[in-house]
């Protein structure tokens, strides 16, 4: 059995390569057999290595022939390799490619650096022009940065070392007398292009691996909007500005929350935005490092509230801390959402049509005496001795 040409089918807006097999398998002619990566992913019981669905591409094989094909003993590794070929060959429609890409210089068009060693000139050649350009002590500042360590890595090729690891091969740039179109420049590149360059090295690891799906990249915020590889104001992580001032540059609505009377000590430097949020993206809303129901973020500091308890407050496991508290800042003590504690409790503990939390007892007349529920229910986050959280 051998693979012939790779035409394409249109499936759900994606051009999918079609593999045409010639020859035979188990006495069955495979001249008209076709398979796409759509079948390999979504075929009937395709997870079983010995079966392959051909119904979804409409191949007119007799039922007896399809049974023969399904009974064939294809090895798992062979079909895994076939799936990789199909997925690697699939690409979006040409109509979806922006027209501006054709106008970009070759050095700006791809984040993947060429692997021809002869196209790289090395660190010393860059120093001859850029010792004090674009500003004084430009090279000295770079040599004091973490990126300079790449020049001492002898295990990888020149495409991973020094200036050319980020800006691409510099031979044509040098021969052109400093022609900027012959090398990748970050100043006029899009956030997606810049981030793709950075992620060739920084995509490995939990911290940066989800940046491609992050809210920052979707909002056209790239790596160099927060980081400065040459002249950072903060040596740690090469930041352009210290937290939270850097975050406040975009998140103005959050800045006013931290200016309220009661707030987490972010402005004082005791807590950082990145302690709770991952700026490089993740799978959770607001790029949180844990879900609100788990509240592991809060428990890192508020360990006494973590439990486990014999009697759990159910809201702690469903909505989490944010059911009662505002995490950034509040005008109320303990970052509560309501100014009166009983009003907070009555949002759940009141008579309603739907069955919910236990209602407030009738002898709690909500006069001044009963307005502070936590005077009696002191262990409101959970208790080991009282089912009503008295202690």
Topology record:
Elements: E1 2-3, E2 8-11, E3 14-22, E4 24-25, E5 28-29, E6 34-36, H1 37-42, H2 63-70, H3 76-89, E7 91-92, H4 123-130, H5 138-143, H6 164-167, H7 171-175, H8 191-202, H9 215-218, H10 245-248, H11 252-258, E8 262-263, H12 273-276, H13 296-299, E9 311-312, H14 314-318, E10 329-330, H15 341-346, E11 382-383
Antiparallel strand pairs: 1-3, 2-3, 3-6, 3-7, 4-5, 8-10, 9-11
Report on the biggest sheet: 5 strands, antiparallel
- List the domain count as a whole number: 4
Residue stretches low in confidence (pLDDT < 50, at least 5 long) are 1-62, 64-77, 90-103
> What would the average pLDDT be, to the nearest integer?
75
Structure, explained:
This protein is α+β, with helices and mostly antiparallel strands and 391 residues long. It has four domains: 2-94, no CATH class; 111-185, no CATH class; 199-289, no CATH class; 297-383, no CATH class. Helix content is 25%, strand content 8%. The chain has 15 helices and eleven strands. The chain has helices at residues 37-42, 63-70, 76-89, 123-130, 138-143, 164-167, 171-175, 191-202, 215-218, 245-248, 252-258, 273-276, 296-299, 314-318, 341-346, and strands at 2-3, 8-11, 14-22, 24-25, 28-29, 34-36, 91-92, 262-263, 311-312, 329-330, 382-383. The strands form four sheets. Strands 1, 2, 3, 6 and 7 form a five-stranded antiparallel beta sheet that branches. Strands 4-5 form a two-stranded antiparallel ribbon. It starts with a strand and ends in an 8-residue tail after the last strand.
């Amino acid at each position: 059995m051998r693979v012939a040409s790779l035409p394409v089918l249109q499936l759900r807006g994606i051009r999918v390569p079609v593999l045409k097999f010639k020859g035979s398998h188990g006495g069955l002619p495979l001249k008209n057999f076709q398979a796409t990566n759509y079948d390999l992913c979504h075929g009937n019981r395709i997870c079983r290595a010995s079966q392959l669905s051909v119904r979804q591409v409409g191949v007119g094989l007799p039922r007896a022939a399809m049974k023969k094909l399904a009974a064939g003993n294809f090895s798992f590794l062979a079909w895994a390799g076939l799936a990789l070929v199909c997925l690697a060959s699939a690409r979006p429609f040409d109509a979806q490619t922006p027209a501006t890409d054709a106008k970009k210089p070759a050095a700006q068009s791809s984040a993947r650096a060429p692997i021809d060693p002869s196209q790289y000139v090395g660190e010393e050649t860059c120093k001859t022009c850029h010792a004090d350009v674009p500003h004084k002590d430009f090279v000295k500042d770079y040599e004091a940065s973490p990126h300079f360590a790449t020049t001492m890595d002898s295990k990888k090729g020149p495409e991973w070392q020094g200036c050319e690891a980020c800006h691409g091969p510099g031979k044509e740039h040098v021969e052109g007398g400093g022609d900027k179109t012959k090398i990748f420049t970050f100043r006029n590149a899009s956030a997606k292009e810049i981030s793709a360059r950075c992620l060739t090295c920084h995509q490995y690891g939990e911290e940066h691996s989800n940046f491609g799906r992050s809210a920052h990249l979707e909002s056209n915020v790239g790596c160099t909007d927060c980081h400065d590889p040459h002249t950072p104001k903060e040596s740690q992580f090469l930041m352009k500005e210290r937290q939270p001032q850097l975050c406040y540059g975009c998140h103005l609505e959050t800045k006013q929350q931290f200016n309220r009377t009661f707030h987490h000590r972010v402005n004082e430097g005791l807590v950082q935005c990145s302690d709770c949020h991952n700026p490089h993206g993740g799978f959770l809303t607001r790029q949180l490092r844990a879900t609100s129901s788990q509240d592991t973020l809060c428990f890192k500091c508020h360990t006494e509230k973590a439990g486990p308890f014999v009697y759990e407050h159910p809201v702690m496991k469903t909505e989490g801390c944010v059911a009662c508290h505002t995490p950034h800042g509040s005008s109320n003590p303990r970052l509560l959402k309501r100014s009166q504690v009983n009003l907070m409790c009555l949002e759940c503990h009141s008579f309603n049509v739907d069955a919910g939390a236990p209602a407030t007892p009738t002898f709690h007349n909500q006069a001044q005496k009963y307005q502070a529920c936590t005077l009696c229910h002191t262990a409101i986050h959970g208790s080991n001795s009282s089912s009503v959280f008295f202690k």
